[in-house]
Amino acid sequence: MNIGGLSARDIDEHLVSSGWLKLEGGPVDEKALSDWTEVVARRLGMPTRGRSLPVVEVLKPRRPGEAPSTSLSGKYGFEQFPFHVDGAHWSTPARFLVLACLRADEHRTPTLLVDRMALALTSEEEALARSAVYLVRNGRNSFYASILSNGQPFLRLDPGCMEPLSTEGEAALQLFSGDRLSPYIQRITWSAGDVAIVDNWRMLHARAPVQSANSDRVLLRCLVT
Fold this sequence. Notes:
Layout: H1 8-18, E1 20-23, H2 30-44, E2 47-48, E3 57-59, H3 72-76, E4 96-103, E5 111-115, H4 116-119, H5 123-131, E6 134-136, E7 143-145, E8 162-164, H6 167-174, E9 186-188, E10 195-199, E11 203-207, E12 218-224
Antiparallel strand pairs: 1-10, 2-12, 3-12, 4-10, 4-12, 5-9, 5-11, 6-7, 6-8
Helix pairs in contact: 5-6
Protein backbone atom coordinates (compact mmCIF):
# COMPACT_ATOMS: atom_id res chain seq x y z
CA MET A 1 0.00 0.00 0.00
CA ASN A 2 1.33 3.42 -0.99
CA ILE A 3 0.66 6.50 1.12
CA GLY A 4 1.20 9.89 -0.46
CA GLY A 5 3.22 8.24 -3.23
CA LEU A 6 5.51 6.50 -0.74
CA SER A 7 5.73 2.76 -0.25
CA ALA A 8 5.58 1.18 3.20
CA ARG A 9 9.33 0.64 2.95
CA ASP A 10 9.92 4.31 2.05
CA ILE A 11 7.92 5.44 5.08
CA ASP A 12 9.70 3.05 7.43
CA GLU A 13 13.13 4.15 6.15
CA HIS A 14 12.22 7.83 6.49
CA LEU A 15 10.99 7.37 10.06
CA VAL A 16 14.17 5.50 10.97
CA SER A 17 16.41 8.19 9.46
CA SER A 18 14.50 11.32 10.53
CA GLY A 19 11.87 10.38 13.10
CA TRP A 20 9.07 12.05 11.14
CA LEU A 21 7.84 12.92 7.67
CA LYS A 22 5.24 15.16 6.07
CA LEU A 23 2.92 14.17 3.25
CA GLU A 24 1.52 17.07 1.22
CA GLY A 25 -1.53 17.44 -0.99
CA GLY A 26 -4.11 15.52 1.01
CA PRO A 27 -7.86 16.26 1.01
CA VAL A 28 -9.10 19.48 2.60
CA ASP A 29 -12.66 18.38 3.33
CA GLU A 30 -12.98 17.49 7.05
CA LYS A 31 -14.59 14.07 6.57
CA ALA A 32 -12.20 13.08 3.78
CA LEU A 33 -9.14 14.32 5.70
CA SER A 34 -10.28 12.55 8.87
CA ASP A 35 -10.74 9.32 6.93
CA TRP A 36 -7.32 9.74 5.29
CA THR A 37 -5.70 10.39 8.68
CA GLU A 38 -7.14 7.13 9.98
CA VAL A 39 -5.97 5.26 6.87
CA VAL A 40 -2.42 6.51 7.48
CA ALA A 41 -2.68 5.59 11.17
CA ARG A 42 -3.83 2.04 10.36
CA ARG A 43 -0.80 1.63 8.13
CA LEU A 44 1.35 2.23 11.24
CA GLY A 45 -0.54 0.23 13.85
CA MET A 46 -3.75 0.46 15.87
CA PRO A 47 -5.51 3.86 16.11
CA THR A 48 -6.36 4.43 19.77
CA ARG A 49 -8.77 6.81 21.45
CA GLY A 50 -7.42 9.23 24.05
CA ARG A 51 -9.59 10.26 27.02
CA SER A 52 -12.79 8.81 25.43
CA LEU A 53 -12.37 11.06 22.37
CA PRO A 54 -12.95 10.00 18.76
CA VAL A 55 -10.16 8.05 17.09
CA VAL A 56 -9.41 11.16 15.03
CA GLU A 57 -9.53 14.19 17.34
CA VAL A 58 -9.99 17.82 16.31
CA LEU A 59 -7.41 20.22 17.81
CA LYS A 60 -8.02 23.98 17.97
CA PRO A 61 -6.27 26.71 19.99
CA ARG A 62 -8.26 27.40 23.16
CA ARG A 63 -8.00 29.77 26.08
CA PRO A 64 -7.33 28.20 29.50
CA GLY A 65 -10.95 28.64 30.62
CA GLU A 66 -12.23 26.87 27.52
CA ALA A 67 -10.17 23.69 27.97
CA PRO A 68 -9.85 21.05 30.72
CA SER A 69 -7.54 22.32 33.43
CA THR A 70 -5.34 19.23 33.15
CA SER A 71 -4.77 19.67 29.40
CA LEU A 72 -1.94 21.68 27.85
CA SER A 73 -4.48 24.17 26.48
CA GLY A 74 -5.91 24.50 29.98
CA LYS A 75 -2.47 25.30 31.39
CA TYR A 76 -0.87 27.31 28.57
CA GLY A 77 -3.69 28.65 26.38
CA PHE A 78 -2.22 30.40 23.33
CA GLU A 79 1.34 30.31 24.68
CA GLN A 80 3.87 27.83 23.33
CA PHE A 81 3.25 24.36 24.66
CA PRO A 82 6.12 22.61 26.44
CA PHE A 83 7.78 19.81 24.53
CA HIS A 84 6.14 16.50 25.29
CA VAL A 85 5.11 13.10 23.97
CA ASP A 86 1.47 12.15 23.46
CA GLY A 87 -0.01 9.51 25.74
CA ALA A 88 2.50 10.09 28.54
CA HIS A 89 -0.38 9.41 30.95
CA TRP A 90 -0.70 5.87 29.55
CA SER A 91 1.43 3.02 30.86
CA THR A 92 3.03 2.98 27.39
CA PRO A 93 2.83 6.24 25.39
CA ALA A 94 1.47 6.19 21.85
CA ARG A 95 3.92 4.68 19.38
CA PHE A 96 3.16 7.07 16.53
CA LEU A 97 1.33 10.33 16.14
CA VAL A 98 -0.50 11.26 12.93
CA LEU A 99 -1.36 14.94 12.52
CA ALA A 100 -3.29 16.48 9.64
CA CYS A 101 -3.99 20.13 8.83
CA LEU A 102 -7.61 20.98 8.10
CA ARG A 103 -6.98 24.74 8.25
CA ALA A 104 -3.78 26.73 8.73
CA ASP A 105 -4.06 30.16 10.37
CA GLU A 106 -2.67 33.30 8.79
CA HIS A 107 0.62 32.89 10.66
CA ARG A 108 0.86 29.19 9.71
CA THR A 109 1.58 28.38 13.37
CA PRO A 110 4.03 25.47 13.22
CA THR A 111 4.35 22.29 15.19
CA LEU A 112 7.84 22.13 16.71
CA LEU A 113 9.86 18.91 16.88
CA VAL A 114 13.04 17.88 18.68
CA ASP A 115 14.79 14.56 18.12
CA ARG A 116 15.66 13.15 21.54
CA MET A 117 18.59 11.33 19.93
CA ALA A 118 20.20 14.69 19.13
CA LEU A 119 20.19 15.85 22.76
CA ALA A 120 23.08 13.58 23.79
CA LEU A 121 22.43 13.64 27.54
CA THR A 122 25.49 13.25 29.74
CA SER A 123 25.64 10.18 31.98
CA GLU A 124 24.75 12.40 34.96
CA GLU A 125 21.75 13.89 33.13
CA GLU A 126 20.52 10.49 32.03
CA ALA A 127 20.84 9.22 35.60
CA LEU A 128 18.74 12.18 36.77
CA ALA A 129 16.04 11.46 34.18
CA ARG A 130 15.95 7.85 35.41
CA SER A 131 15.88 8.58 39.13
CA ALA A 132 13.49 11.53 39.40
CA VAL A 133 9.95 10.36 40.18
CA TYR A 134 6.68 11.94 39.04
CA LEU A 135 3.04 11.45 39.81
CA VAL A 136 1.53 10.83 36.37
CA ARG A 137 -2.06 12.00 36.64
CA ASN A 138 -4.66 9.90 34.84
CA GLY A 139 -7.68 10.05 37.11
CA ARG A 140 -8.19 6.81 39.03
CA ASN A 141 -5.43 5.26 36.92
CA SER A 142 -2.70 7.66 38.08
CA PHE A 143 0.71 6.13 38.72
CA TYR A 144 4.34 6.95 39.55
CA ALA A 145 7.04 6.94 36.88
CA SER A 146 10.27 8.54 35.70
CA ILE A 147 11.15 10.14 32.37
CA LEU A 148 13.49 7.28 31.46
CA SER A 149 13.40 3.72 32.76
CA ASN A 150 15.62 0.73 32.19
CA GLY A 151 14.21 -1.51 29.48
CA GLN A 152 11.71 1.00 28.12
CA PRO A 153 12.41 2.26 24.58
CA PHE A 154 10.41 5.45 25.01
CA LEU A 155 10.79 8.70 26.91
CA ARG A 156 7.83 9.71 29.10
CA LEU A 157 7.46 13.49 29.12
CA ASP A 158 4.47 15.77 29.57
CA PRO A 159 4.55 18.62 32.11
CA GLY A 160 0.78 18.79 31.70
CA CYS A 161 0.17 15.47 33.46
CA MET A 162 3.49 14.73 35.21
CA GLU A 163 3.89 16.31 38.64
CA PRO A 164 7.48 16.34 39.96
CA LEU A 165 7.70 15.10 43.53
CA SER A 166 11.03 16.76 44.33
CA THR A 167 13.44 19.44 43.17
CA GLU A 168 15.23 16.59 41.39
CA GLY A 169 12.12 16.09 39.28
CA GLU A 170 11.93 19.79 38.45
CA ALA A 171 15.59 19.73 37.39
CA ALA A 172 15.02 16.69 35.16
CA LEU A 173 12.21 18.49 33.31
CA GLN A 174 14.60 21.34 32.55
CA LEU A 175 16.73 18.92 30.53
CA PHE A 176 13.96 18.89 27.94
CA SER A 177 13.01 22.57 27.78
CA GLY A 178 14.24 26.07 27.01
CA ASP A 179 17.67 26.82 25.62
CA ARG A 180 18.72 23.18 25.86
CA LEU A 181 16.37 22.33 22.98
CA SER A 182 16.70 25.48 20.85
CA PRO A 183 19.55 24.27 18.57
CA TYR A 184 17.63 21.11 17.68
CA ILE A 185 14.15 22.45 16.90
CA GLN A 186 12.60 21.43 13.58
CA ARG A 187 9.32 22.88 12.29
CA ILE A 188 6.29 21.53 10.53
CA THR A 189 4.82 24.53 8.72
CA TRP A 190 1.27 23.59 7.84
CA SER A 191 -0.86 23.97 4.74
CA ALA A 192 -4.37 22.55 4.44
CA GLY A 193 -4.25 18.87 3.49
CA ASP A 194 -0.79 18.19 4.92
CA VAL A 195 -0.40 15.01 6.99
CA ALA A 196 2.59 14.36 9.26
CA ILE A 197 3.71 11.08 10.80
CA VAL A 198 5.76 11.44 13.99
CA ASP A 199 7.66 8.74 15.88
CA ASN A 200 6.29 9.57 19.33
CA TRP A 201 8.91 7.46 21.12
CA ARG A 202 11.73 9.44 19.50
CA MET A 203 10.47 12.95 18.74
CA LEU A 204 9.35 15.50 21.32
CA HIS A 205 6.80 17.96 19.96
CA ALA A 206 5.15 21.23 20.89
CA ARG A 207 2.83 23.80 19.36
CA ALA A 208 4.44 27.18 18.71
CA PRO A 209 2.73 30.26 20.23
CA VAL A 210 -0.57 31.19 18.60
CA GLN A 211 -0.28 34.84 17.63
CA SER A 212 -3.96 35.67 17.18
CA ALA A 213 -6.85 35.11 19.57
CA ASN A 214 -9.00 34.60 16.47
CA SER A 215 -6.78 31.86 15.04
CA ASP A 216 -8.67 29.43 12.83
CA ARG A 217 -5.91 26.79 12.97
CA VAL A 218 -7.40 23.29 13.02
CA LEU A 219 -5.40 20.08 13.15
CA LEU A 220 -6.63 16.51 13.30
CA ARG A 221 -4.78 14.01 15.49
CA CYS A 222 -4.75 10.24 15.68
CA LEU A 223 -2.70 8.30 18.26
CA VAL A 224 -1.31 4.94 17.18
CA THR A 225 -0.29 2.09 19.48
